[in-house]
Design goal:
Layout: H1 2-21, H2 39-45, H3 56-65
Length: 89
């Protein structure tokens, strides 16, 4: 009997902790993690990847037109050397 009460108390404590942990009433607003400046590019072209280009030169031209290394919203220059889609060479 005593073991049943202890087990029940442990289960209830665990359920209460789970309910507190998963309480979605957090008043913090969602954090925006995108860059609003990308709206034109993404709405005009969508998210571009290296597979979307037929050559490295085409990808490089697009990259430079979109702002180059300072604004690589499409993450075409993964190693940060200013040369995009090196696998297409």
């Amino acid at each position: 009997m005593k073991n049943g009460i202890i087990t029940g108390a442990i289960v209830l404590a665990g359920l209460g902790g789970y309910a507190l942990y998963n309480n979605n009433s957090n008043s913090n607003p969602p954090v925006r993690n995108d860059d609003p400046k990308t709206e034109r590019s993404f709405s005009e072209y969508g998210d571009k990847d290296c597979a979307d280009f037929s050559s490295q030169g085409e990808a490089q031209d697009f990259f430079e037109k979109e702002g180059g290394p300072a604004e690589d919203f499409h993450n075409l220059d993964r190693d940060g050397d200013g040369i995009v889609c090196e696998s297409l060479k």
